[in-house]
Design a protein that fits this description.
heterotrimer; A alpha+beta; B alpha+beta; C mainly alpha; B: alpha+beta; Phenol Hydroxylase P2 Protein; four-stranded antiparallel beta sheet; C: mainly alpha; Ribonucleotide Reductase, subunit A; two-stranded antiparallel sheet; two-stranded antiparallel ribbon; 5 strands; 61% helix; globular
Amino acid sequence: MPIQAITPDYHGEVRDRLENFHGNQLVYVGWDRHLLFCSAVAFPLAPDTRFAQLRDEAMAGVFGLHPEWAQVDWGRVSWLLDGEPFEPMLDRPLNEQGIGHKSLLRMQTPDLKGFQSAGV
Amino acid sequence: MSKVYLALQDNDLSRYIVEAIEEDNPSVTVNYQPAMIRIENEGRLVVRRETVEEKLGRDWDVQELHLNLITLGGNVDEDDDELSLSWNR
Amino acid sequence: MAAKKLNIKDKYRLLTRDLDWEFSYQDRKEAFPYEEFEGIKITDWSKWEDPFRLTMDAYWKYQAEKEKKLYAIFDAFAQNNGHLNISDPRYANALKIFLTGVSPLEYQAFQGFAHTGRQFGGVGARIACQMQSIDELRHVQTQIHAMSHYNKFFDGFQDWSHMHDRVWYLSVPKSFFDDARSAGPFEYLVAISFSFEYVLTNLLFVPFMSGAAYNGDMATVTFGFSAQSDEARHMTLGLEVIKFLLEQHEDNVPIVQKWIDKWFWRGTRLLSIVAMMMDYMLPNKVMSWKEAWEVYFEEAGGSLFKDLARYGIRMPKYAETTEKEKEHVSHQAWWIFYNYGQAAGFHTWIPTDKELDWLSEKYPETFDKYYRPRWELARQMEAEGKRFYNPGLPQLCNCCQIPMGFTEMDDPTQIAYRQTVYNGERYHFCSDGCHDIFVDEPEKYVQSWLPVHQIFQGNCGGPGVEDVLRDYYRMNVGADNLDIKGSPDEQRWNAWKGVA
């Protein structure tokens, strides 16, 4: 049963559907084992944003505060999209590579162990 | 066995209640923390009106315990003569 | 001839049995329309027992005495400038969270018990809910009165009720109670009376209030313990509710167990805020969150669930996860607020050396390994003149609404991510517990009012975060928020104390 309600056939309003974001979609991005950032970050982005823009503008604007950001070797980064391995195409828009509304993108840099190698 | 417990505000009245509890429940542990007194015992703990009255030197209603009580753990039973806390097993 | 004096058992019986009436010309089901839809079966309401057997005359008499004592202390506190006796101005920030996050829940509980009490066919249950409802109203009032004194001297106390309905982190406590109040009456009782009052509120009102005393805050410890004296009654009611439901019908057992599982998890998530208040916001320490969890949940809750085993009730689901979480949650929660100190209605800070050492001592397995490095990096950045504030908005859990900063407990440098897709929409959770609650009733939680999403939908003013803070949350930007260092609170404190 999708809900225990006194009203028959009750349905809740889906508050975060795509249409409510005025042309944007939400993308969550986290940098694994870099817990200076307490959690993944939510970005409202146009669905035709190119991946390079997400990486070099949105992500850099937040994760760039980490002392290791400048050391990221982009050739060795691996990505997870909603839990599955993912190969981003830098010059293609988000919506052409399966990055949907409220998708979670995780960036993994196993060479970089975080501050004091403590995952921070 | 499981422990039952109660905590009282650390004040003048509670001192006498604690004395009465210690007398009626010889195995209790009394633990003083900032502003409060935590009293615990294995299985069962009782607060008896007569004993409290004897310590206080005046009439005392078991329900007056509410004025100083902070918390408790265990099944409660209260009547005119005592309040008890217990676990069934 | 003088009437025979009634004992409390007789008085209680007269109040709760003989004052009720039979429905002769109205349909009972129409009078109590919410009694059946949750699937709970009540065969005999007269089996309801209140072990304290409190009658209205005794209730008013003792409540009046409690109030007189309490207000005498508030007067003395105000007349003697009690705010100058707190241990450290940082302490006042725990009170800001209390006033904006907890006191409004007392009001929600007042409304919740008033509504719920009306829905029960049994008069004993109705009276118990009525008394608790009045108690909860007393709690919100006394808390406002106690903290109004601080409002004269510190920032961040001015608009607590407005903030409770809007501010991002306050959606955590608000949504907790909204969830309970929008459930049926029996779930509400299991949620609030049992899971919250009996199993968890001790952790808020006992060690934290003892901590308030230890930090020189006479007003707070007094309202806290005065409220808690009612709470002892509420806890007892909570336990009786459970025993009553379980004894009424065996079909109630799985329903009650599911609610215990759900509300235990909702409660532990809510209490992560209290965990950080205990470990990080009390300058003079009484006990660590971990110790409090061991005494008030593992030991007391352990005895309780052993006692309930005879009804077929087991420990709440994921209780074993909380045994690991007690080593981590306070640190992870305070780090979230340190990250977003620019958007909090109270001040945040890096713990002092002495405090870091206390945390190492209390958390020998985890603090130096996982959490001290966070503070050392924060300190390094602060020393470079770049106090760290996270410029992005956090991903929130769709159930508890806390930023998704909790980690896998067996891999504490990895954030825990859980997700599900329901009707084509993707939803994210901080834990298995929150995931399961959503999946059980998705039509409820698709409606979650997630503050970060609401900001991005343009429903909170803006466009910038500072506009949201100032205009929508009504924070005094630059005074209420940011680090304690350099804050007006700190400057005033130093002036009072004659510190340069």
